[in-house]
Structures are given as C-alpha cells and as structure tokens.
Write a structure and sequence with these properties.
Distance between the termini of chain C: 33 Å
Radius of gyration of chain B: 21 Å
Radius of gyration of chain C: 19 Å
Shape of chain C: globular
Oligomer: heterotrimer
Shape of chain B: globular
Number of helices of chain C: 10
Number of strands of chain B: 9
Structural class of chain B: alpha/beta
Chains: A mainly alpha, B alpha/beta, C mainly alpha
Chain lengths: 645, 260, 305
C-alpha cells in the first residue's frame, strides 16, 4: 500500500461516513469515521516524513491554482495528534449521544464527520487555497456540531462562535491575499521569506482559532454549550490547528526580534488571563475552556523561546522550545478532551455544571471521579502525569536563556520564568479548587446528591486518555525521541544536547518510581494495620452541620482575589435585608471577560449602530422598493451619460 | 506637650524581659510540696455515730457515707474538718487521682501513702503506647470553668505538663484521651458523645473534678444527662473542686507510667 | 548516601524538637525533650483511625502520597553532603512540583472532609503557594545565571559562600532571606501560621489536618517536618564557606541546622502572628527579593555564558 492509496481510503471512508450518518446508522458512521481517521493517521507513522522531506499525496488543478495535499514534519505531528484525538472523540460522541433524544442526531453526525474531515484536511493542505477551504469547513461544521441542544443559550453561543471564526477567517484571507501578492504563489513551499506584515496578519488569523489573547473570548462562550464530546474535540484539537498554522507561518519567515518579544508578551498574557479566569469561574466547562487558553499561552511561550533561540543562535533553546511546545500541544490534546468528556458526564448525570452546586460526586460517580482526579493532576502539571514533562521542558527552555549573554533575552527569560511559574501555581490552585469543590465534600444540592455513575461506555474513552496521560508522564523521553525524529535540521541542536535531555529521564523515572513505591508501601501498610472507624467530620460537636457551610468557589479564592481582579473583570452582588434576623440573603460573584466587555461588546454595538442607520430604508412597502429601483436606474443612467460625454 | 515616638520592642528589651522572667517552672511537679493549707487527700477516723451523722448531714454533696468518704463527691469545702477536727483531717497531698471509681471511696483504712501507692494502675499497653507521648482533648461539659482553668494551668510555665510529652490538642482526632470537666449537662451530652466517637482507638476517658466524677454539687439537678458514663468507663478520676494542676500532672503521668 | 538517608529519616523530627525546645526555654518552661516529635510519631502510627463518612479515596491516600512525594523531593536535595542522592539537569523543577503534588493532595484531603475550617486552611495554603513557587524559581534562576549549573546539588555546592567575593556574599544573603521566609510559610510557622494552635486566626496548614488521625496524621506530621527541614537544609548550604572537605561540610551543616532550629524557635517566641489579611504582603517578600537579586545580577552582567 502506498501513502496515496492510504490517504484516498481514509478520505473515502470519511466521505462515506457522511451519508451514512444521514441515514441514521450511528454505529457504522462512528466506525467509518474512526477508521478513516486511523488510515490518515497511519500515513504519518508509516511513511514518517521527517526533516525537510515532503510527502506528496495528491495534487490536482483547480482553475489557475494547483491544489496539493501532502505531509511535512510539522503537519505529521499535528496529524497524529488530530487523528488520535478524533478517533477517541468520535467514539466518545457515540457513547455520549447513545441515550440522547435521537431527533437531530443525524445531522449532528454529519457535521461531526465533516469536522473530523476538515481537521485532517487542514494539516494535509500544502497550499493556502486548500487550507482556507478546510478552515472554513471546520468553522461551519463545528458551528453546527455545537447545536445539539437547540435552546436559546446554545444558539446564541454558537452564533458568537461562528462570528468569531468568520472574523478570524477574514483576517486569514487577507493574509493569504497579501502573501499571494508578495510571492505570487499559494503554495507554502514558495512562501519562504514572507514580509513581516503579511506573516503578522496570517498569524493573527490563526491566533483566532488558537485562542490567543485578545482573540480568546469565543472559547469560554462556545465550549460550555457544546455537548461533551464536541467541546472536548474543539478545545483539544480545533485550537491546535491554530498552533499548527502559527508554526507553519513562523517557519516561512524571519520574525524580527521585537515581534518575538511582543508574541511572547501576548503568550504570557494569554496564559495569565486564562489561568486567572479558570480560577475565578465556577462553571466546570468554562473553567476548562479558560484553562485551554492558559495552555495555549504556555505552548506559545515555548514557541517564542524556540524562535528567540534561533535569533540568538543557540540551537539548544530552539530544540528545547519547539519540543516543549509540540509535546505540550500533544499532552493538552490528551488531558483536556478527557476532562471535557468527564465534565460532560457530570452534566449528564447531575444536570449541573456549577461547582458551587456540586460536591460529593467522588462517592457518587467514583470512576468519573478517579479519572477526573488523574486529569486534574495532568493539567496542573504534577509529576506522574504527562503535563509535567512538557511544562518541565518549557521551564528548561527558559532557564537555558539565563546562560545566553544578552540582557534583553535575560530579562525576557526572567519575565517568562516568573510568569510561567506563576501560571503553573495558579493552575494548581484552580484545579485543586475545581476537583475539590465538585467532587469532594458533601453535595451542595439535591441534584448533586442524586447523581449516579455513568454507564461504562461514557468512561471508556476518558480512561484510555488517562492511561495515555500516565504513560506520557512516565515515559516522556520516548515521546521526545519520537518527536525529535521529526524535527528538521533548522530546529535541531547538536546530538549531545538531546542525549543530555534524554539522560535526565532515567533519574526522573527513578524518582517517580520511588514516589510511587513509597506511597504504595505506606498506604498498604496503613490499610493492613489500621482499624477504621467511620464518623462524621469533626465539627467541634456542632449538632447541625450543613453542606452549605463548606467552602465555595468564591470563598476558596478569596485570598488572591485582589490579584485575580487584575486579570479578570468581576461582577458582584450582595443582597440582604439588614434586620437582626435576615430572612433574605443572596450573593452572586461572577468573573467577566474584560476583552468581551471592553473590546468586543463596543465593536458589536458600533456595528449595530452603523447598521441601524439603514434601518429606515426598510419600510416593507412595495411601492417604496420600486421607487428605490427607479432612483437607482435613473442614477445609473445619469452616470453612464455623464461618463460618455 | 511632646509626644514620645512610639517604638517597637528592641531585641535588648526582649532579652531583658526574658532575664527578668527567670526560671519559673516547678523543678519536679511530682516531688514538690503544696502549701500546708491546701486541702488535699483526707483521712478520717470515725469517733462516734452521732458526730459522724452530723458531719454527714453537713456535707453539701453527700460525700460522707455510712463509713466512707467519697473523694469523687467531695468538694473540699472543709466543713467537716472545721466542725469535727478529730474525725476529718485533710492532708496537703495532691496525689489523689485513682483508676477506679471505688478507690475514691475511702474507708479510712488506707494511709495516704498506701493510697498513693495503689490508687493509679497503669497497664503495659498504656505504658507502651502513651508512655512518651499522650495527647488530651478537653471537653467542658457544663463546668463552671474552674476545672477548665486548672486544666489549662497544668500546661502553663509553672506546671508545664508538656515536659512529659503530654499536651492538649485542638482536634479529638489527634487525641488519645478525652478529659471531661463539669457535670455533663443536657446541652453538652451530644457534644461529649461526638467528641468521644471522634477520638481514634485506643482511647481513654479521664474525668477531672468532682462534677465530672459524680455530678458534684449538681448531682441531682434535672439538667444533667450523664448517660454517657454508663456506656464508657473512665480509667482515671482526678478529684478536686477544682482539681489542682498538680493532681492532674501526677494522675496523668502515673497513668501513662512515667513516674509513680 | 547513608548519611543522606539517615538525615532524611532523623533530621526532621529533631529539627522540630529543637525548635519546640527553644520556644519552651524562652518561655521559661522545661519543655518536652527534643525527641518528643519522634515519640509523637510512633504513638500516632500505632493508633487506629477515625475517618469521616464524608471523605472519599483522596483522604485515604493523602497522608501516604504527600509523605512519599516529600521524601522523593528530599532525595533531590543535598542533605548533609554536597551531593543529593539523585540529581539531574533541571531537577529543581521536579523538586518544586513534587512539593506541589504533596500540597495538592493535602488541599484536596482538606476539601474532602467538607469542613468549613479545612476549606479555609486549604484556600490559604494554596494562596501562599502561588507566591512562593515563582519566588523559588527566581532564586534558582539567579543561581543558574551566576554559576551555569543545572542541578540542585551543583547549584548549591557551587554556591556556598565565597568569602572573598562580595557578590557571592550578597547573593547568599538574599537567597537565605528568601528561603527563610519560604521556610516559615511552608513549615507553617509564626508569623504566618502557628503550629501550636488550630484557631481561626491562624488557620493555614494546621487546620487542614483537623480530621486526620492515627498513621495518616503521623505521615502528615512527618511530611511537614521534612518539608521544613528541606528548606532549612537549602539555607544551610548558603552559609557554609566555599572549599571545605566533606567531613567539615557535614559537621558545619549539622551545626547550622541546629542553629537554624534555635533561631526559628526564637523567631516564633518573639514575633507575634500577623493578621491574616497582611500575610500576602509578607509572602511577597521572597518574590521581590529574588526578583531584585536576579535583576541586579543581570544588569551587572555577572553571569552569562
């Protein structure tokens, strides 16, 4: 079998899945899509287009343009990320919608299949035309895929998302047009040496999808409204195409050092904004969406330092940075969908996403709870799970910056280091809060108290992902060697650097093994020896403890609120009657996205106002419209006559 | 009017304070002597039935029985000693703690020294487990705060029960023993029971003060609810009204087998 | 190696014991013997447990997991000698994250009980961490900047004080200040926290373990003592002059550890607890000190390749 046939089979399977879905054969649809993604993914593994080789698959003529599909080292890495993610995502989607009201699921399947197809096409595209086609397809299909629940909030969120994607696409299209006028070609291979402005516009176009500040505000709006599997795929996979695009452009041109510093600042602000919102939010899915933004920021930092290393001709930094960014992309595409799928399960069982109304789920949904704990560990970057390895790499990248003799770079390294450390510690805070409040303690509401464990199907995929996260956390060096095998020369450092990187994993693993061994020894020794008596939590002998006395999302973060408020807008309402025995008391605290409030809302409003100017034109009376036509004709006539003379 | 600038304490001030403070700890609380006026372990010799009966009626808590004197009820008011000095003598020995409730009921046959020698029984288990470290949880079960203050005083600079590895801790989960003071009122019955349940096994119940041991002055009060004591047996009774810190120190150290 | 393991096993409780003894002596008491923490530990691990029926598996694993993580972190720190048991380039990241893991499970265990007190402690503990973690990274970064080393052992052994260089002295001094404040916070010491009370005023670390009992509590006590000793150990190396033999270093190390414990005891005796709302200001100190040191170094161009 050649890569071409494999590719065609994969695409054909996916195409086939679309009509199958319309027929309502959901099982076959799922299998076909998974198979298709599997076929496409194996291309990158079997034929492994590493270094500067390009694996050409298909090319055809479309008018004056040659459309070409193929794989490079970069797209191979992202292809594997996407196909693994899609296979698991679609499988989970099947389980998730199994008991759902079947109405509308046919078209949902259709658009889901289209989303999977377009995600793959994005990385296969070797020219801007194909890329843009896949890009738009991705935007629209994901828009329709969100719309499973057809209620007002979902509809609004989906519209918001669509408008955002179209704005991004418009910027991207501008960039592509500029690039075409600069280079006279749409093929990425011909784009080397793009002018800075063009590359800048293109990168902004991609930043919309990746969710970089200030283009991030669609994530926390769209993700909560999508069904579990779609939000997982959007957050884990869709945003990665933005990262892919940015890397694609970065390879093509020589970014100026000031531009890199700006990009670095944006990445850091993205990470900080994301993580502080994750700390402030109380809706599980919104927390996860904001944390995606944070992780995109971390990936961005890795990329920035990689390219700074290039500028300063320290190949080790470049290699560490790009490996860190790529590995973090992969890791994020594992643990984030997992958490989204699980939060979908929580919503499914408890009909609630607000951590202030959950609690005690660990005992009611044990498997979901274990997996959620594992996911929280991974996303907080704790050792044993994969999140640590990639964050470790980004840290190493930045720390290497202190050995470079350049004051500017050193200062960038300080800011990056302190910022990243801060982000990491806040992430720990945010996920301890999310898991702790949602899953531990006593249920705060009836809904949470009556939640039951999901069916096995709904935690199969998350447990596979958890397993992958664990494997990635312990054998990070194999992942790195594998990624290293793809890198082109321009990203590589002398082998000694890479070997020294890999060598660290032996003692690292030893520490992990010791930690686990000690833990098991202590734990089992205690379990064997100790007799356990069960009793109520010690409450100083108080007779009527209530679940409402527990710490809440707002009180838990109260000590850091002043700092949090620097990054998040807030909305606070306290209402009570001030009598001696108040009977009415309500407190609301919400985090508000400042970008949405200060930047997007005004734009939307001014667009509104501008369009309102024309509202008077619409009267609905036929005579008036005929008059408009007449006026237009007369005007045209006059113009023609004046023009002739 | 001039204002002196407000300054903080300097290191020198602190050192001076420390030196002036000196060493206030009682060198060895188990060997120390209390003031002769301190009413401690009583002894009695029954003279005649009539005076005994009068003494019995004068006793506010009914500590004086047919032929016995109940240390667990005695509030050490000294009425009997003042009126019948031949019959009742309160020594100044503070070593009054006992492991069994019956031991507290003196029949006048034991000398104070013999009482001290046999009153508190430790077990190898307790010695092994708690001999070097023993943590208490205090429950004030409707007490008047006198016993509580004395219990608190046993941890202060002078008595310093901490030197034996004994301490009062903030959570029953960390404790090995519950020290009950006060007569156990209805309102505290639940809390006491909860506290007891919250202490991990092996655990010990200690009753400190006449109220806790017998209800003391409030023994017949309708507001008491002492059912808890039927379920759990204390293994250390510390008499007194209030119980003296030295009694506490001696009783507990003897219980955990630190010193006799 | 044996020295390291011995220190990991013995030092923490001795350290706490000395601190407590110092406090007792300053207060004019006799005080518990210095080995009292061992006695407490052995009593705890021989006891049974009471567990709240609110709690889940998290509470069950928390003690063992946090102790295991802290011991693993201790393996990365030179303890009594110049070399840690295990070291690799960038091991300080793992060190810090293992501490983070211990904290993560401890905080979750506190939330697991559903008690408002424990939630409060958990919240405060996490809040302090957010200041300390970046500070620690910056401290390490300034050491890397100057020495170019990549492992904790190397950084520390290359950074014992060179008495001849005023910069070495200054870095050491600043680092020690930063680390000492971290020690106070991480070890839940006055003025941030008070290990002897569990009152609302100072509810940070101690209140998070209100529901732990028996061996579980013993593990937590050990982990906490070890954590404090780790920071003290790091500080000790910054006070040992450069260029001594192994025996001399170990001897000096032990001496400095004892002195530190005494100093800590004095600090606790003399300082009042700070109002909880003012604590974040104090926790900021290491961060700003570390930032200051690093910026100064970079502006002066003292490091680099």
């Amino acid at each position: 079998m050649t890569p071409q046939t494999t590719f065609l089979i994969g695409i054909a399977l996916m195409m086939l899945s679309l009509p199958v879905s319309m027929l309502g054969w959901r099982k076959i649809f799922t299998l076909l899509t998974m198979l298709g993604a599997g076929f496409l993914g194996t291309i990158a593994i079997l034929w492994h287009p590493a270094g500067n080789t390009v694996l050409s698959l298909v090319s055809f003529q479309l008018g004056v343009f040659t459309v070409e599909l193929g794989l490079t080292w970069l797209s191979s890495i992202f292809l594997i990320l996407l196909s693994v993610g899609c296979i698991l995502g679609v499988a989970h989607g099947y389980a998730y919608l199994k008991d759902h009201d079947q109405r509308g699921l046919r078209s949902h399947g259709f658009f889901l299949g289209l989303l999977v197809l377009s995600l793959h096409l994005t990385v296969f595209a070797r020219d801007a035309l194909m890329l843009f086609f896949a890009w738009e397809l991705m935007g629209f299909s994901s828009f329709f895929a969100i719309l499973v629940e057809r209620d007002e909030p979902t509809w609004k969120a989906a519209k918001y998302y669509l408008i955002f994607m179209q704005a991004g696409a418009a910027v991207l299209l501008t960039g592509i047009a500029l690039a075409y006028s600069n280079t006279g070609s749409l093929r990425f291979d011909d784009w080397s040496g793009l002018p800075v402005m063009t590359a800048f516009v293109l990168m902004i176009g991609f930043a919309f999808k990746a969710g970089f500040f200030p283009f991030h505000s669609w994530l926390p709006v769209a993700h909560p409204m999508a069904p579990g599997h779609v939000s997982g795929m959007m957050s884990g996979l869709l945003t990665k195409t933005g990262i892919y695009g940015i890397l694609l452009i970065l390879v093509c041109f020589e970014p100026p050092i000031a531009g890199l510093y700006v990009f670095g600042a944006v990445a850091l602000i993205t990470a900080l904004t994301g993580v502080f919102h994750a700390l402030a939010e109380t809706d599980i899915k919104r927390i996860l969406a904001w944390s995606s933004i944070e992780n995109i920021g971390i990936i961005g930092l890795g990329i920035v330092f990689a390219w700074l290393g290039k500028k300063l001709e320290v190949p080790a930094i470049t290699m560490f940075g790009i490996l860190g960014a790529l590995l973090h992309s992969i890791n994020h595409s594992l643990f984030k969908p997992m958490l989204f799928y699980l939060s979908g399960n929580v919503q499914h069982q408890a009909h609630e996403r607000d951590i202030n109304r959950l609690g005690g789920l660990q005992k009611r949904m044990p498997v979901t709870g274990y997996l959620f704990f594992a996911g929280s560990m991974a996303i907080a970057g704790l050792p044993l799970m994969n999140g640590f390895v990639s964050e470790f790499l980004v840290f190493l990248t930045i720390l290497k910056g202190f050995r470079v003799f350049s004051v500017g770079f050193n200062i960038a390294a300080i800011v990056g280091l302190a910022g990243l450390a801060y982000v990491a510690s806040i992430a720990l805070f945010a996920f301890a809060r999310m898991y702790g409040l949602a899953f531990l303690g006593e249920p705060r509401t009836e809904k949470a108290a009556h939640a039951k464990e999901t069916k096995r199907g709904l935690w199969t995929v998350p447990s596979i992902l958890a397993g992958l996260c664990l494997v990635g956390g312990i054998t990070g060096d194999y992942m790195l060697s594998w990624l290293h095998g793809f890198l082109p020369d321009s990203m590589l450092a002398p082998d000694a650097e890479f070997i020294s990187l890999l060598e660290r994993f032996q003692p690292f693993r030893l520490v992990l093994v010791i930690t686990l061994g000690l833990f098991l020894a202590l734990f089992l020794w205690r379990r064997r020896k100790v007799r356990f008596a069960r009793n109520a939590t010690w409450g100083c002998g108080y007779e009527k403890p209530s679940a409402k006395m527990q710490y809440t999302g707002a009180s838990f973060v109260h000590p850091v609120e002043p700092i949090m408020n620097m990054f998040t807008g807030k909305h606070r309402e306290l209402d009570f009657d001030s009598s001696h025995f108040p009977t009415r008391l309500s407190f609301v605290r919400e985090a508000k996205d400042r970008v949405q409030k200060r930047l997007i809302a005004p734009i939307v409003q001014s667009v509104h106002r501008f369009l309102d100017l024309f509202a008077g034109v619409q009267s609905g009376k036929t005579q008036v419209y005929i008059t408009y036509g007449l006026v237009f004709l007369v005007a045209a006539l006059i113009w023609v006559i004046v023009g002739e003379s | 009017m001039t204002h002196k600038p407000i300054t903080g304490l300097t290191m020198i001030d602190l050192l001076k304070a420390r030196i002036r403070h000196g060493d206030q700890a009682i060198p060895d609380p188990l060997k120390t002597k209390t003031d002769p006026a301190f009413p401690g372990l009583p002894s009695f010799r029954k003279q005649d039935d009539e005076s005994w009966d009068r003494a019995r009626k004068s006793c506010p808590t009914g500590a004086i029985g047919e032929n016995t004197l109940d240390l667990g009820r005695c509030v050490f008011c000294g009425v009997c000693q003042r009126n019948f000095p031949e019959t009742f003598v309160f020594s100044n020995s503070f070593k009054m703690g006992a492991s069994r409730r019956e031991t507290l009921i003196l029949d006048g046959t034991l000398t104070p020294d013999a009482y001290v020698a046999s009153s508190i029984a430790t077990t190898p288990d307790i010695r092994r487990l708690f001999g070097r470290s023993f943590k208490l949880r205090s429950v004030s079960a409707g007490g008047c705060a006198a016993c509580e203050l004395e219990l608190n005083a046993s941890t202060n600079v002078n008595f310093d029960i901490n030197r034996y590895g004994i301490d009062i801790v903030a959570s029953p989960r960390h404790a090995d023993a519950v020290v009950v003071t006060g007569p156990i009122t209805q309102n505290m019955a639940y809390a006491l029971e909860e506290t007891w349940k919250a202490v991990p096994a092996p655990k010990i119940l200690i009753l400190a003060g006449a109220c806790a041991i017998s209800g003391g002055l409030f023994a017949d009060a309708p507001a008491l609810q002492r059912g808890f004591l039927d379920k759990v047996e204390a293994i250390l009774y510390l008499p007194g009204c209030p119980v003296h810190p030295l009694t506490i120190v001696h009783g507990i150290t003897a219980l955990i087998g630190r010193k006799k | 190696m044996i020295v390291n393991i011995l220190f990991i096993l013995l030092m923490p409780f001795l350290f706490v014991g000395i601190v407590n003894k110092t406090k007792a002596v300053w207060a004019g008491r006799r005080g518990a013997p210095v080995w009292q923490p061992y006695a407490d530990f052995f009593r705890l691990i021989r006891k049974h447990e009471v567990i709240s029926h609110t709690t889940s598996f998290i509470f069950d694993i928390s003690g063992a997991l946090s102790l295991a993580a802290i011991i693993a972190a201790a393996l990365l720190i030179p303890f009594g000698q110049y070399k840690a048991l295990i070291s690799f380039q960038g091991d300080f990241v793992l060190f810090l994250y293992l501490m983070g893991l211990a904290k993560f499970v401890a905080v979750l265990a506190a939330l697991d009980t559903g008690s408002a007190f424990e939630g409060m402690g958990a919240s405060r503990e996490m809040s302090f961490t957010t200041f300390l973690e970046p500070a620690f990274f910056l401290v390490i970064a300034s050491l890397i900047y100057v020495s170019g080393a990549g492992t904790l052992s190397e950084l520390i052994s290359m950074h014992t004080v060179r008495l001849s260089s005023q910069w070495s002295l200054m870095i050491s001094a600043l680092t020690v200040i930063a680390l000492f404040i971290m020690l106070l916070v991480e070890g839940s010491r006055v003025p941030f926290d008070d290990p002897t009370t569990h009152l609302e005023l100072t509810m940070v670390h101690e209140v998070m373990v209100l529901d732990h009992s028996g061996p579980n509590f013993g593990f937590v006590q050990y982990a906490n003592a070890l954590k404090m000793t780790l920071f003290a150990s790091l500080i000790a190396y910054f006070l040992i002059p450069w260029g001594l033999g192994v025996a001399a270093v170990t001897a000096l190390y032990v001496g400095i550890m004892v002195l530190q414990a005494i100093f800590l005891g004095l600090v606790e005796s003399i300082l009042p607890r700070v109002r909880m709302t003012r604590n974040p200001e104090l926790v900021f100190i290491p961060l700003s000190v570390a930032l200051l040191a690093l910026t100064a170094l970079i502006v002066l161009g003292l490091g680099g390749a």
